[in-house]
Amino acid sequence: MEGGNSPSLQLQQLPLATAAVSVQPHADSFSYKENLIGALLAIFGHLVSSIALNLQKYSHIRLAGSKDPRAYFRTKTWWSGFLLLVLGELGVFSSYAFAPLSLIVPLSAVSVVASAIIGIIFIKEKWKPKEFLRRYVLSFVGCGLAVVGTYLLVTFGPNSHEKMTAENITRHLVSWPFLLYMLVEIIVFCLLLYFYKERNANYIVIILLLVALLGSMTVVTVKAVAGMMLVSIQGTLQLDSPIFYIMLVCMIATAVYQATFLAQASQLYDSAQISSIGYILSTTAAISAGATFYLDFMGEDVLHICMFALGCLIAFLGVFLITRNRKKPVPFEPYISMDAMPGMQNMHDKGIAVQPDLKASFSYGALENNDSMPEIYTPATLPIVQEQHGSKGVSAPPYRVLEHSKKE
Fold first, then answer.
1. How many CB atoms sit inside 10 A of residue 122's CB?
2. CA–CA separation, 408 vs 403, rounded Å?
3. Which residues contact 70 (CB under 8 A, 6 or more apart)?
4. pTM of the complete model beyond 0.85
5. pLDDT tens column, 253-277
6. I want to staple 326 with a disulfide (CB 3.0 to 4.6 A). Which of 52, 117, 169, 272 is the partner?
7. Are 273 and 203 within 8 A, CB to CB?
8. Cβ–Cβ < 8 Å for 30, 95
9. Angle at the Cα of 407 (from 406 to 408), degrees rounded to 5?
10. What is the residue extent of each domain of the chain?
11. Is the pLDDT assigned to residue 313 strictly greater than 90?
12. Spatial CA neighbour of 319 closest among 84, 115, 99
């Protein structure tokens, strides 16, 4: 009897074992395939976007250095870059529908690595091998660290997957961890905005923290929109739910304000600083938002979390070293041609050269000579009223010449 009942007992216990396995996040092998698909799409998108931006930059530089009267949007190079940029952004957008948010966001280091490699390949200066290695050793080390960090991120990234249905997104949206996270983020954002707008605290960390906080909400909504679109394509329509359009509006709004703060930061600081500090702050804020909203690290063991954090730190260091090696822009010495000013056509009648004063900052039209007098290094005074000298029919030039003696 026992031998005859044992097969039936095994058949009865089989569904229970299968149900127990389906609860475990790491037992489904297809989830790892989804992680790989999302990571490859993100890497492809960032790589293509970096190539596209460099193509558009090349188009602008080529037009600026030639006598071509065409606008930049009438060139094939610029449109090729634009189409590649759209393709790259679509790849990054679709990657959020497959892999967890905390895995996709740090992979933006690929764009920094690609930009560094493209800059080294297309550099126009000729270097000797030793000088070339000495000049770009930090870039090579940074690229290597970024690749190692990317490998660790893909290998030990979170493996939590759920269908982005309207019901699941609404449940995450009203959960108390995310509500608490949103409360803290809104308070911090308002404080930073107050110091930035009212106290004129134009520090790069403050501006990029504003960008990072907005960016964390952008990636949360991007994953929701991309995931609901994927579920709709698979057969379960989600586009008729109000939560889809709420997430879509939030995605567009946060992206627009994020671009506004980035534009303000680019006017005050160097692009290398913005790239390194912005990547670190934005990635940290986005991972925190993904862990709170989508519970990316729920069920992960300590080893995977520690290795994932190590991959993030290595990627941060690699991006910092890459951007650290960029040349600082040389400040522009202002120069105004006095011939172009109305009423000053007689300035060069006696061969007096007008050059920018290099010893005083931003003094336009200072006259250079060999007299070491302090008046020479101050901006020239150009009165409007003309004085009459000598005969009545002859008018003096519309400027006053200061006479200096060398008695002392």
1. 9
2. 14
3. 63
4. no
5. 999 999 999 999 988 898 888 989 9
6. 272
7. no
8. no
9. 95
10. 162-295
11. yes
12. 115
